[in-house]
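Lines hold sequence, tokenised fold; shown next:
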Amino acid sequence: MGRASFRVWGWAWLACWAMASCASESEPRAPRLAPNQPNGNSALASAMVAMDGQLQATLTSVMADPDHSWEGRRLVEHDLLGLDPTDDSMINGHYLEHAPLYALAVAQFNAHPSADHFNAVVESCTSCHLGTCPGPLDRIAKRRVSAE
């Protein structure tokens, strides 16, 4: 291959590459969804995602049961005061006061599973989040058992 044909081939390759690059930049990109857990995966954030998942799964299971029975249902207990948060500012006086109330509500539900005790767990989440991190309040409200 002569020097002139090498240059032509090089310029042709460069032109193709440039056109391909421009074409891909002008194509519309699909919007990216926000992450399910915007605060990262601290131990506390991960526990709260797990807590929400178990509330959702429990509620779905009870509603799928023709008798809507709560018998034998249990929630995993999380040591919210022993987990590291995403940001230390999340641990304030309100949190320190309300986190133990969540543990009590879960213990009460586990001892006597019922819609009322389930709603008490959901309410303990709401009460705590009102004074620390209000972001998931709409999601928490969806976990409440409605009166039948």
Notes: The CA atoms of residues 18 and 24 lie 10 Å apart. Helices lie at 3-26, 43-64, 93-111, 115-130, 137-141. The mean pLDDT is 82. The radius of gyration is 26 Å.
